[in-house]
Amino acid sequence: MIQLKGIEKYYSTGFVKTFVLRDIDLEIEEGEFVSVMGPSGAGKSTLLHILGMLDTPSGGEYFFLDQPVHSLNERQRTELHKLNIGFVFQSYHLIDDLTVYENLETPLLYKKVKTSERKGIVSDMLDRFHIVAKKDLFPNQLSGGQQQLVAVARAVMTSPKLILADEPTGNLNSAQGEEIMELFKKLNQEGTTILQATHSERNASYSRRIIHLLDGWVDREERQA
Questions:
Q1: pTM assigned to the model
Q2: Is Nucleotide-binding among the key words of this record (predicted)?
Q3: Secondary structure class of 142 (helix, strand, coil)
């Protein structure tokens, strides 16, 4: 599904290059659950943003579903992202002035799904995530755990092939965090590929493979039973 060859990311200041990622080679197969770990500044979020096509690498090649992402223009990348990738952020990224229902509906509007079909999909998702009673509330009326639940529901609205989660439980208490991780586990069992960046050993224990980053390099990989 994903193949990275020699991916680099750096920022130039005058003649000085500050590297965030260096020579990343990585393959992720469809149906995997992978965690990226490492200390702050290791490059975890940058790697996820490049994989999610929210950022572009400074060098190297990125293939997603056999498409050469590094050669696509911005419109083509946006289309590829929109059709295949759901993103879950630590800070939820819900739209403050939209209700829960409207936040969930937004990805379907981007995909120009018909009104009647949209209603059915949103209703199913509200039911599946047990948030029917919250549908008319705004994000600031929800707890952190509830907001992240809505954010995950929104990420899977369009049945993406890949979910990218950047510190998805970072702002939650342990019970809320466990609920989100169990949700990811279930989605993965249903066939969704999941890649998460996390500091948490507990969260990483849900994945089958852990990639350790250090100073922008892949330090080591480990597989779990």
A1: 0.90
A2: yes
A3: coil
